[in-house]
Amino acid sequence: MDTVIPPPPLHTIPTIDGGAFPVRRVYCIGRNYAAHAREMGHDPDREPPFFFQKNPDNLDPSGTFPYPPLSSDVHHEVELLVALATGGSNIAAADALDHVWGYAVALDMTRRDLQGEAKARGRPWEIGKAFERSAPVGPLHSAATVGHPARGAITLAVSDTPRQQGDLAQMIWSVPEIIADLSAHYALAPGDVILTGTPAGVGPVAQGDRLEASIAGLGTLSVRVV
C-alpha cells in the first residue's frame, strides 16, 4: 500500500535469546499491590481493576532514562511486564496464560506532579505516564524458558539504596485475571504487552541516579537517570 508519508517504524523490545518482540499496544493496571494503594492514599480492597495506557515507543531498552521536562517529581515504579503471543476477546482466566509469550522487568516512570494535577482536575493520566521513554524495559524471557512467575521477589534500589521490596504473589489481581478482565474490554492481539503494577516504596529520582530493578528469575534491569 502506498502511504502519503513514510510509515513509522515498528517498535520492538529485545528478547534474551536474540530476536525482537514487536509491540502493538501497552496496557497498565493501576494500584495492583495493596501496600502501594495505601501509600497513594487509596483503599486496597479488591475493587474492580482499572487500566491506563502507554505508547509502544515509550518502551526503552537503552539503559538510560532522560529526566523529562515540565516535571520536578519523577517517580520510579518497578513492574512485571507480560508480552502476549496471541489474543482474543473474553478470554477465560483459566486459559489466559496460554496467550503469554514471555516476561520482562520494566519500569513505569511517572511524572507524579503532573499525574496529581490531572487527578485533581478529573483528567486522564497520560500526561504523567505516557511521556517519551517513560518505560525502561529489560529483555523478554520466553515462558517456555522461565514458566509463568506467580511469586518471587520484585525489588528496586536507587544508587544502592533499597526502595521497593515486594513479591509477585502480593498482586491483588493475578496475571491470568488481568488478561481475562482486559479481554472483556478490549480485543487483545499478538504484540500487546501489560504492565502489572508496582509494590510499595515508589519515590523520586534525580539525574545521576542508578536504578536497579529486579524480579526473581528475570534478572536485573539497570538504568541510569541522565
UniProtKB/TrEMBL annotation:
The keyword Lipid metabolism is annotated on this UniProt entry: no
Protein name: Fumarylacetoacetate hydrolase family protein
Domain of life, per lineage: Bacteria
Domain Fumarylacetoacetase-like C-terminal residues, every copy: 26-226
UniProt xrefs under Gene3D superfamilies: Fumarylacetoacetase-like, C-terminal domain (3.90.850.10)
Annotated organism of origin: Oceanicola granulosus (strain ATCC BAA-861 / DSM 15982 / KCTC 12143 / HTCC2516)
Keyword Hydrolase on entry: yes
InterPro entries xref list: Fumarylacetoacetase-like_C, Fumarylacetoacetase_C_sf
Keywords associated with the record: Hydrolase, Metal-binding
Pfam families: FAA_hydrolase (PF01557)
Signal sequence coordinates: none
A GO molecular-function annotation: metal ion binding
